[in-house]
Amino acid sequence: MNADLIRAAAVRLDGHVRRTPLLSDPALDRLAGRRVFVKAECLQHTGSFKARGGWAAVSALPAGTRGVLALSSGNHAQGVARAAAAHGLPCTVVMPADAPAAKRAGVEGWGATVVPYDRAREDREALAARIAEARGLVLIPPFDHPEVIAGQGTTGLEIAAQAAEEGVTGGEVLVCCGGGGLSAGIALALEAEAPAFRVRPVEPAGFDDMARSLAAGERLCNAPGGVSLCDAILTPRPGALTFPVLRRLAGPGLAVTDAEALAAMALAFRHLRLVLEPGGAVALAAALFRGAALEGDAVIAVATGGNVDADLFARALARGAPSP
Amino acid sequence: MNADLIRAAAVRLDGHVRRTPLLSDPALDRLAGRRVFVKAECLQHTGSFKARGGWAAVSALPAGTRGVLALSSGNHAQGVARAAAAHGLPCTVVMPADAPAAKRAGVEGWGATVVPYDRAREDREALAARIAEARGLVLIPPFDHPEVIAGQGTTGLEIAAQAAEEGVTGGEVLVCCGGGGLSAGIALALEAEAPAFRVRPVEPAGFDDMARSLAAGERLCNAPGGVSLCDAILTPRPGALTFPVLRRLAGPGLAVTDAEALAAMALAFRHLRLVLEPGGAVALAAALFRGAALEGDAVIAVATGGNVDADLFARALARGAPSP
């Protein structure tokens, strides 16, 4: 994989995904002790950066494709469903039965068919493979796929340009990380366009497989049975394609607690007027609450998604947030 | 007043205010029965469009100005305070003692001095005049001032360009309306740049002085003693400068209830991942719930601000919102 695939994806995505704003607020700068910029991918179509990878993958399919299938707790599914609808392709989504209602509703709003499964008892890969074969569908994986990584990487092209507009030409770019598709894509884009930036993947505590894998130099799994509010980024292990990219380009991973993710949501509500979901807030949480582990006088945090149920959001607000 | 003053303000504002995105979501389109575009001024610096007018007015002050004073429940004060800080001018804000905590904190965050007053017992104009004279400060009015209107009008220049990018070249532009500064500025900008658009001011029920004044052809006052959650846009009567502009250019005004404003906040949370305050949500509420009074197959709603306390926002979410 290299940046050419990302630049080619950017051409296909032009006019179909949003160039999301890079936001900041002095209150967050004071809290973090350095300038903080937030790449607001929660404002992307479908409410997350996954609209990029979905469009990149679907738009690269050969003519004659009968339909697509995605395996996702929601954000990837919405991205694929939106792209499939725009390309006139049927879309089936295999989704955990306990996925947030907002995410299921979002997928169905794009006209996709949802097949729920029991997270604890069913083998989702086997189920997806069975459905794909029976219906002649092409599986679009959530992160370990070159076109998906290329699509997510277009975020990195925008970060390079927008940071330069703010006078920031290097530093750390914190990215909420599940399987590593977005982190790897951004890392490749920045390597080509703005090599003074370095990606740092950020994960929920207990699901820091990427951080531990980067430290160990090999792909490690999370211990089973962990629990986190960050449903969007709970993956068991780094991707086979994403890990080598991040091993070469990324700095050490970071992990934050659910409480820190909720506090970051409350601060983004108050100071940026953005709605973030827990998994979309971990990078901002690291920017605000892991300052000692960061370098430089400016940091960029990618706010990856904002598909959160109202009751959980209200819970984040009720906890309050530390005042800057 | 004409569009030249707005274009001149746009030059001074360049690089100091954000070109906020024009957002949309198919769920809102389904609910409204037409395409709905939201100009997200809640993402503006300080959380509202008032950063534009504040910057325009302060940047137009003559050299030697000793400081500025604003009379405001919060959003205008934040806009003026930010501009004053950037221009190295002291800023004093005369603010109701019961203004939302988020707004007071925002003003103080920009280094301004807050002078609270009792909404029911004190004459705020007399208080402000006394302070301005004693300290040698220039009063920046919230809406009835040519440079303030010009600054707000830069929103209209952006709407014309962004709507064209979406293939929308005419229709109704719904604007949350207090004294009419933003509505008048946008109306003037659109008259010059995209005359097939028409501004419709939107107010809270019980505070529809602009709608009644437009219907009567003269400036009428609101009945005293009304109550609304839309604190940002509770003005007693249309401005002397803004009313003639809107009388010439605007369509009939619209009014929505607090319950409709809260429902619009919940829908913006869910489908746009935006935080709106009640007064910043009335235009979107009209787009969604006053469809029979609107014309055209697309409507633009200006979401003017997002400075809302967490408890009120949670209340809006708890009420839920109608499903599209």
From TrEMBL, chains A, B:
It comes from Rubellimicrobium thermophilum DSM 16684. One of its GO terms (molecular function) is L-serine ammonia-lyase activity. Its cofactor is pyridoxal 5'-phosphate. It comes from the Bacteria. InterPro entries: Ser/Thr_Dehydratase, Ser/Thr_deHydtase_PyrdxlP-BS, TrpB-like_PALP, TrpB-like_PALP_sf. It is an enzyme of class 4 (lyase). This is Threonine dehydratase. Belongs to the serine/threonine dehydratase family. It holds the Pfam family PALP. The keyword Metal-binding does not apply. The lineage of its organism: Bacteria, Pseudomonadati, Pseudomonadota, Alphaproteobacteria, Rhodobacterales.
